[in-house]
Design a protein that fits this description.
Blueprint (H helix, E strand, L loop, with lengths): L5 E2 L1 H8 L3 H11 L5 E2 L5 E4 H15 L4 H4 L4 H14 L1 H15 L2 H15 L1
Antiparallel strand pairs: 1-3, 2-3
């Protein structure tokens, strides 16, 4: 079983719902993500970058301004996301399911899925 550990900007766009152009702008303007680069200057993102982008996207979709999010470190962003899990479980659960699938984390997937079943049945 192959676990994907690096992602293209197109992968990030599809998984986060944020357009590639916007991701590039956030990188340049706010130093939000730091992809590695190939010899031909093609971006490659780690799973940590993907997780950060999913967290940032969750906060952004909840009404936080990107300029404010960019001032937080990764731990503060993750903490804000955990806090909003209580009030907005649906979006958080979707992000968790995405990360669990990408990491082939069966336990996290099952736990999240079970919580959703319990909540909505």
């Amino acid at each position: 079983m192959h676990v994907k550990t690096h992602f293209s900007i197109k992968d990030l766009e599809q998984l986060s719902g944020v357009k590639a152009h916007t991701i590039r702008i956030w990188e340049k303007r706010y130093d939000l993500l730091t992809p590695s680069r190939s010899e031909t200057n093609i971006r490659s993102y780690s799973s940590a970058c993907l997780q950060k982008l999913l967290n940032v996207t969750s906060l952004y979709n909840d009404g936080y301004k990107i300029s404010k999010i960019a001032k937080f470190d990764e731990e503060e962003i993750a903490e804000l996301v955990r806090e909003r899990e209580i009030s907005n479980n649906h979006t958080f659960a979707i992000d968790n399911l995405k990360m669990a699938m990408l990491a082939f984390d069966h336990d996290l997937f099952e736990k999240t899925f079970d919580q959703l079943l319990e909540q909505y049945t």
